[in-house]
Automatic annotation (TrEMBL):
Origin species: Nonomuraea dietziae
Entry-linked PROSITE patterns: HTH_TETR_2
Keywords, in A-Z order: DNA-binding, Transcription, Transcription regulation
Domain of life: Bacteria
Source organism phylogeny: Bacteria, Bacillati, Actinomycetota, Actinomycetes, Streptosporangiales
Protein name per UniProt: AcrR family transcriptional regulator
SUPFAM superfamilies from the UniProt entry: Homeodomain-like, Tetracyclin repressor-like, C-terminal domain
Residues in the DNA-binding region annotation: 36-55
An MF annotation (GO) of this entry: DNA-binding transcription factor activity
InterPro entries: Homeodomain-like_sf, HTH-type_TetR-like_transc_reg, HTH_TetR, Sco4008_C, Tet_transcr_reg_TetR-rel_C_sf
Length: 202
C-alpha cells in the first residue's frame, strides 16, 4: 500500500477511536437517551457528520461499544474459569473497575435505556447469569467454596460487589470510606467475600 494511503488509513483509525472514546464518555455519563451526537463530536474534536460516516449514527456507535464489551467479556469467561474462585472474582472485579465507563453502559442497559431489541438483550443476560450460577455450583461441588449458601445468591453477591462501585459509588464511599474504584476497595471486598464463603485458596 502506498505511503499516502497508509497515512490516510492510520488517520481514519485514530479518528474512529477518538469518536468511540468520546462516545463512551457521553453514553456512560448520560445514557443512550441523554447522549447527543453533537456533544460526542465536540468531545472528539471532529465534525458531527463523521459519526454518521463511520458508524451510521448514535445507535451504531452504541452497538460498536457494546460489541467491544462483549468481546472482552467472552475472553474473560474462559480465563476466569481456569482460576480458583477468588482469583476469578478478582479478574472480573478488575475488568469491571479498570474502565468503569463500560460498566456504566451495562447499568444504563439494565435500567432500560437501550434502543435495540430488549428481548434479545434479556436472553443474553439470562444466558450469562445461568452460566455463572452453574460455574458457582461446580465450584461448590468441588469443595472450592462453601455450600452453605445457594449458588444463585453467591453469584448475585459477586455481581453486586463488582458493580456497586459503578452504580452506587456514594454508598461505597460512606460505608468503606475509600475511593470505590481503588485497589483498597477491591482488596477489602475480596478478603471479606473469601471469609464469608470459606474460600479454598489452593
Amino acid at each position: 500500500m502506498p505511503e499516502d494511503q497508509l497515512q490516510a488509513t492510520s488517520k481514519a483509525a485514530r479518528t474512529r477511536e477518538r469518536i468511540l472514546d468520546a462516545a463512551l464518555d457521553e453514553f456512560s455519563a448520560k445514557g443512550y437517551s441523554g447522549a447527543r451526537t453533537a456533544a460526542i463530536a465536540k468531545r472528539a474534536g471532529v465534525n458531527v457528520q463523521l459519526i454518521s460516516y463511520y458508524f451510521g449514527g448514535k445507535e451504531g456507535l452504541l452497538e460498536e461499544l457494546l460489541s467491544s464489551w462483549q468481546e472482552r467479556r467472552s475472553k474473560l469467561v474462559p480465563a476466569s474459569k481456569a482460576e480458583l474462585f477468588l482469583e476469578s472474582f478478582r479478574m472480573v472485579l478488575n475488568a469491571t473497575l479498570r474502565d468503569p465507563r463500560r460498566a456504566r453502559l451495562v447499568v444504563w442497559q439494565a435500567l432500560g435505556d437501550y434502543p435495540g431489541d430488549t428481548e434479545a438483550l434479556a436472553r443474553e443476560w439470562r444466558t450469562v447469569a445461568a452460566a455463572a450460577v452453574e460455574q458457582t455450583r461446580a465450584r461448590q461441588a468441588a469443595g472450592e467454596i462453601s455450600e452453605d449458601h445457594p449458588p444463585e445468591f453467591v453469584t448475585l453477591l459477586s455481581f453486586l460487589l463488582a458493580f456497586a462501585p459503578v452504580a452506587l459509588p456514594q454508598v461505597i464511599e460512606e460505608i468503606y470510606d475509600v475511593d470505590p474504584l481503588s485497589e483498597e476497595y477491591r482488596q477489602r471486598v475480596s478478603e471479606a467475600l473469601a471469609a464469608f464463603l470459606d474460600v479454598r485458596h489452593a
